[in-house]
Amino acid sequence: MDGIDAGLFRFGERSCTTLATRSFPWPDELRRELEHMSRHPDECTVDVLGELDRRVGECFRDAALALIAESASDRTAIRAIGSHGQTLRHRPDAPSPFTLQIGDPNVIAAGTGITTVADFRRRDLALGGQGAPLACAFHAWAMSDPEEDRVVLNLGGIANVTLLPAGGSVRGFDTGPANGLLDAWARRHLGAPFDAAGRWAAEGEVDRELLDACLADPFFRRPPPKSTGFEQFNLAWIEAALARLGRTPAPADVQATLAELTATSVADAIREHAPATRRVLVCGGGVHNDDLVRRLRAALAPATLETTAAAGVDPDWVEAATFAWLALRRLEERPGNLPSVTGASRAAILGAVYAGD
Predict the structure, then answer these.
(1) Do 76 and 28 contact (CB within 8 A), yes or no?
(2) What confidence tier does 30 reach under pLDDT thresholds 50, 70, 90?
(3) Domain range spanning residue 262?
(4) 4 in Cβ contact with 21 (< 8 Å)
(5) Distances (CA, A) of 219 to 18, 166, 173, 227
C-alpha cells in the first residue's frame, strides 16, 4: 500500500521491453483507510468495502490515464490493462479459502476505454491452490536459463522465491517477511514510511535470542506450497515475539534482527529447496535496502546475488510487468498459473476480461 505502480510494456516471443513507468502516491486519507480496514476487517462493512472498491478503481484509472498521457502513447495501440487490485485479505488456508483484491475494473475499463483484465488469483484458489505466488510463471518465462540453476527473489512486503532449475519443474513460494516488518517498525520508531537504505538497521546489533524466537514461527518450517501476508507478519507478530523474549531490546537492534530474519529465512529456504543454485536474481523494493542486500549476499554465498536487470527486467518493475504479461496470457487464452508453485490441481487461464470501447 505504499503506492500505485503503472508500467507500459511490449512483449515479444521471449522478451519484455519497458516503454514507460511511474509510481503514483495514494491519496493520504485513502491509504490510511485501506491500511486500517486491512488490519481491522471487523470494521470493514459492506458499505465501506463497496466505497473503497470504487475509489481504488478510480485511482487505478487515473494512474493509467496519466501514464498514457505522459508517455505520449497511442491509447488504441494498448491491447489491455492488467490490474492486480489492492489486496485487503488473503486467506488461502481458511476453512473456505478466499482472497480479496479491490479496485473495480469496470471503472478502469470505462474510464480508459481499454480492455481491462483483473481478478487473477481466485481461479487458482478455486482449483485448490494458494492463489500465490503468481509471478513465478513470468519469472520462468523471462529469466530462466537452460544451463544454470537460478532463483528469482522478490523482496516486497513479503519475500518470495521462484526456483528455476536448469532442468526440472519450476517451484516457488513465500519464504516469510521482508519489507513489511521493517517498514512497520520504522514507522513506529522513526515516524518514517521506511528505513532508507537500511541505515537504521545497520546501526543496530542482531539479537540472537530474538532472532531464534522469530524463526520458531511454524510458517518457516511448513513445506511449500505456501503463501502469507500482513495478516500474519505485522506489528502484533513482532510484539508477540518480544513478549516471548521477556525483554525489550533497543529499537535499532530489533530492526537489525528483522533484517537478519529476512536474510536467514530466505537463505534457509533456498538451501533446503534449491541447493544447486548458482545465481539469485533479486527484485522488488528491497533491492534499495543496502543493509538487507548485504545480509542476503553474505547468507547466500557462494551463490551470486544480483538484480533482475542482469536478466533484462528492471527490478523495480517486475511485478507490474508480471500482471501485464498475465493479462496478455488471458487474452491469448493461455494458462497463467503454475500448479507446481501454487498447489492448484491443474493449470488454468487466470483473470476476468472487462471490455473497453
Answers:
(1) no
(2) very high
(3) 135-311
(4) no
(5) 36, 28, 12, 9
